[in-house]
Amino acid sequence: MLGLGNSIIGYTHTDEAYVDPSSLGTLALWLKFNTGIIADQNASAVTNDPLHTTDAGNMAHNDRISQWSDQSGNNNHAVQTASHDKPRFDTSGGGNDTGSVKMASNAKFLDLTSGITLTGDFTVQIRFRAGNFNNNFSFIGDSATDLFRAQDATEFRSFIGGSGVHAWDEVSATQLSSGDNTKRQIVTFTRSSGALSVHVNGGTAAGGWNNEQDDVDWDAAESHSDTDTFTISNIGASEDDTENMFGWVFDVLIYDGVALTEAQRKQNYDYLNSQSV
Question: Which of 61, 136, 140, 145 could cysteine-pair with 162, CB 3.0–4.6 Å?
């Protein structure tokens, strides 16, 4: 069962109006940790009858995930019908990854029911754990010219509307971790009046989830700007079976028309990192 604790992790806030990420503006998509996950097949690709769901509490290790239901109210669910492309539900590693969606071996992805088109300000927040950075991988995308990618353990890249690559290569902060199931990162990709930025928050539970990256303005010297339309139709890939992610996805938030401030990012860090099973 999903448990939302009342303790504040890593930061202190006094904004009583904040309840959850939807308090901060219009969500185009909310794929929520351990919520609305449906597996229509088991690990051996045998049909689950009845369906296995996180809401019913009957998910099993390596169940093949057919849907991650959108909690924004838009019913823009992330789905997969091809058995070999379905992400897995993982209960291994001491249970640390339970409740997440495993994009195994750079070979899994999900399609959104309807593509998202972002024409103005936006914020994308993804809580994840990388398996490794042997290959670059895209968190979200629609094509080779619309994506947000982890190039390696220090660099993020984006393409928006085919206007060329924007890169953030941070060498002074602690690089992104991989392969350690006690760690999490939250990457925030923001556009504000055309200006693009990337922030990273991450670490371990014992370190308040921010002992490795404390809302780091990733490669802050960069000043990228892009006003083209950003289209998103895939989760865990740039497009179907291309630049697939290897890792675990815990939450995906996409805001349309909202560029989160530092204080708002940190409110979401607290909320997302308070979730447990």
Answer: 145
pLDDT in tens, 165-194: 999 999 999 999 999 999 999 999 999 999
Note the pTM of the prediction, 2 decimals.
Answer: 0.93
Domain containing 222 equals 3-32+110-276
Q: Which residue has the tokens 């769901």?
A: 53
**What total number of domains does the chain contain?**
1
**22 CB neighbour count, 10 Å cutoff:** 15
Taken in order 85, 66, 139, 208, the sign of the CA dihedral is: negative
Residues β-bridged to residue 40: none
For residue 180, is it within any domain?
A: yes
> Judging by DSSP bridges, how do beta strands 101-103 and 155-159 pair with one another?
unpaired
Classify residue 129: in a domain, yes or no. Answer: yes
Residue 138 in domain? yes
For 210-239, write each residue's pLDDT tens digit.
Answer: 999 999 999 999 999 999 999 999 999 999
CATH number at residue 161: 2.60.120.200
